[in-house]
């Protein structure tokens, strides 16, 4: 029987069958990937599916989102909660590890599910939306914790909340006198740019400074639709920062990193963090050792504008927090 033509992707693909129907994995891979899907969520948005070249086995967009059976193998050094958030959780949805800032996680769903995700054991489409009562308790915690000057909304991805709900949370936080800065970490502007509507931009146009840390790992993720979404955000007064993970097969060359950081800057996104991979289960194929990461960054120094330079950081095990990995130069 001849192959059916690949359907036009208009919906997020959420399972192995959907990936095969879209021509993104071979049919005979489906049973193996169904075992992966039973453990880790799958989501590939139309925007990201459109960027994948199915003929390229090393496609850097596919590498980030298309599951592989190796994910079922947990290496000895991999741990369930690599950032050790749990001991720093005073109440559901809040993580307070550093004195002046704390995380608020209103939900644990994302527009896409990245295969290297450090929160892969907890993120998913049907988990983690705080109840009204839990959200109210979390907001009340921020109101009575004056040491916290910055609220960082993360998850999951806060930008998949409805503009009305997100706007209400931001307005409430911005009204707290000791909260000086709001920050959101999100993959939406590149992975699902259609969600950045005028209504969402309006919800983000709060009185206090709002920094949006955009997660992107490859220059190609900055599609024309992503450009439109990012422009809409800057026009709403949002300050854009970039956050990336150093990933084997995605951005593990000086050229790929240069292209990524230059693409960010062209879209008014200032590279902020380049993360060393956290050791979440089944992510070993993405590992780039820190010495290799430092060598890559050394190649970029002087070659690209200083605006492109990120902080290369690693989350220390056991909750010690993020530390810079260098590189450093001996001077004097
Ligand atoms: C990463 C992180 C932050 C933010 O750290 P910055 O260095 O300010 O970007 C805050 N709280 C927790 C628990 C974190 O993991
Ligand atoms: S968007 Fe972030 S939290 Fe969600 S799967 Fe990707 S890395 Fe994990």
Automatic annotation (TrEMBL):
The record's annotation in Gene3D superfamilies points to: Aldolase class I
Occurrences of domain Radical SAM core (ranges): 96-308
On this chain, the residues bearing N6-(pyridoxal phosphate)lysine are: 322
Which Pfam families does its entry note?
Radical_SAM (PF04055)
User: Where do the annotations place [4Fe-4S] cluster binding?
Assistant: 110, 114, 117
Keywords attached to this Swiss-Prot or TrEMBL record, sorted alphabetically, are: 4Fe-4S, Iron, Iron-sulfur, Isomerase, Metal-binding, Pyridoxal phosphate, S-adenosyl-L-methionine
| Cofactor list | pyridoxal 5'-phosphate; [4Fe-4S] cluster
PROSITE patterns recorded for this chain? Answer: RADICAL_SAM
Any one Gene Ontology MF annotation carried by this entry is:
4 iron, 4 sulfur cluster binding
Q: Tell me which SUPFAM superfamilies the record gives.
A: Radical SAM enzymes
Report the sequence similarity comment from the record.
Belongs to the radical SAM superfamily. KamA family.
Q: Which NCBIfam families match?
A: AblA_like_2, KamA family radical SAM protein
Q: What is this protein called?
A: Lysine-2,3-aminomutase-like protein
The scientific name of the source species is Falsiroseomonas algicola
